[in-house]
Amino acid sequence: MTIKKASDIMRSVGVLTLGCKVNTYESEFIINELTKAGYEIKDFTDICDVYIINTCTVTNNSDSKSRKMIRQAINRNKDACVVAMGCFIAANQDINIPGLDIILGNKDKSKIVELLDEYFKNKETMRLQYTNRLKEFEDMYINNFPGRTRAFVKIQDGCDNFCSYCIIPFVRGKCRSKNEEEVIKEVTDLVNNGYKEVVLTGIHTGSYGVDLDTSFADLLNKLVKIQGLERLRISSIETTELNEDVLNVLKESKVLVDHLHIPIQAGSNEILKAMNRKYDLDFFFDKIKEIRSIRPNIAISTDVIVGFPGETEELFETTIDTCKKLEFSKLHVFPYSERKGTASSRMDNKLDNKTKKDRSRRLIEVSKELETNYMNKFQGKQVEVLIEEYKDGFSYGHTSNYLHVKINKKLPHNELVKVTIKDIEYPYCIGE
Q1: Which tens digits make up the pLDDT trace of 348-386?
Q2: % of the chain beyond a pLDDT of 70
């Protein structure tokens, strides 16, 4: 008699993704694998046989949300298999939530079908956590992102920077890279499947190749030559990784989009040093100037942490001044969140939540001002928009430099359309 695997029985699964684009990619891979194994993919809020929560731990709020979503799944269907995986699990080795069936860190996510088979066979709680820093790249491959016009490719994992506020190097492990040929094949297959824009993502994307006989610039040079690829976007890159070779690709190829996300994290040298960032303001300003000499109209967005230990009102004002001088196109603002085990958790002069909340609000206002200033530069100009959705009589999409454009006309999905910006209605550019 042939014994059926658990995946041979039709079961329903809901997958929830918290956190970064790397998690988004990994969850998409998991969904693809479960679909191939015969699982029915349902909404996470539905009654399902399996719930998978791909967690995040970058802030206290991330931890709270991860824990909350795990409990919600357990309470939604007491008979379901509940799987929690990712950074929150890796950071909490002693996690104990009754009703949580599979506990999985940042390794073996690709084996989800086998793990579920084993669970349904034995009905025993499984705990797969690793205390050492992960050293091998866990390979995944995706050739389709249903419902999306922008495809992601995870090319790198891990981080060796050890910024004083960040837990991620401890939960994601060492910098490690996907084989170059595999990256090229994955991007090529996505393009052949109709994707015009591909986003390269990783925990520390610009460090790609440090463990291989190649570099990020070498990879970019090869990817921009893929026939049919219209746009190549880098999810995020450190200023220290924007070396001459990378900037040369930016100069030579229009396939690399007119947008870079470069985290600054603080706008004063005192706080940058306390954060253990690998640059000072002079270096950052010089690099931005160099980038704009190559691409004058490029959008440069950034991340800023407010309320770091020791940040005085004067130092916060310096950060505001720095952001304005650098003319960022958008600020992603995060109140400092203490992470147990990091260097900053042991620092003095911590700020209260009220101060952090107030400074966040003030910096978000600065971001809105900077965004509007950048958008106004394109009023009356023609731009090319990748159409992403049609809703309530309007088409929406993004330009190469990440302007969000709203057009009063039904336009074909996943097509690049030339549009003239007629007005600005924050957060949209109005095009026709």
Answers
A1: 999 999 999 999 999 999 999 999 999 999 999 999 999
A2: 98
Helix, strand, coil shares of the chain, percent, nearest 5, are 35, 25, 40
Question: How far apart (Å, rounded) are the C-alpha atoms in residues 260 and 229?
Answer: 18
Let me know: does 76 contact 47? Beta carbons within 8 Å: yes
Whether the per-residue pLDDT at 7 is higher than 90: the answer is no
- The domain made up of 382-431 has a fold known as OB fold (Dihydrolipoamide Acetyltransferase, E2P) (2.40.50)
**pTM tops 0.85:** yes
Query: In which element (H, E) is residue 396 found?
Result: strand 394-399
The domains of the chain are located at 6-128, 133-257, 259-377, 382-431
CATH number of 6-128: 3.40.50.2300
Indicate the pLDDT class of residue 130, thresholds 50, 70 and 90.
Answer: confident
- Separation between Cα atoms, residue 285 and residue 273, nearest integer Å: 16
Distance CA 287, CA 257 (A): 18
Q: Does the fold of domain 382-431 match that of domain 259-377? A: no
SS (H, E, C) 265-331: ECCCHHHHHHCCCCCCHHHHHHHHHHHHHHCCCCEEEEEEEECCCCCCHHHHHHHHHHHHHHCCCEE
pLDDT score at 406 = 98
For the stretch 75-95, what's the b/e string if a residue is b when 16 or more beta carbons lie within 10 angstroms of its beta carbon?
A: ebbeebbbbbbbbbbbbbeeb
- For residue 34, how many C-alpha atoms fall within 13 Å in the half-sphere facing its CB? 24
pLDDT in tens, 78-126: 999 999 999 999 999 999 999 999 999 999 999 999 999 999 999 999 9
pLDDT in tens, 175-228: 999 999 999 999 999 999 999 999 999 999 999 999 999 999 999 999 999 999
Q: Rounded to an integer, what distance in angstroms lies between the CA atom of residue 354 and that of residue 404?
A: 32
CATH of 133-257, one of 3.30.390.50, 3.90.79.10, 1.10.540.10, 3.30.750.210: 3.30.750.210
Q: In whole angstroms, what separates CA 147 from the centre of its chain? A: 18
Sheet of 259-261: strand order equals 259-261, 299-306, 330-335
Instruction: Round to whole Å and give the CA distance between 386 and 373.
Output: 22
**Euclidean distance between CA atoms 20 and 301, whole angstroms:** 16
- 259-377 placed in CATH 3.40.50.2000: no
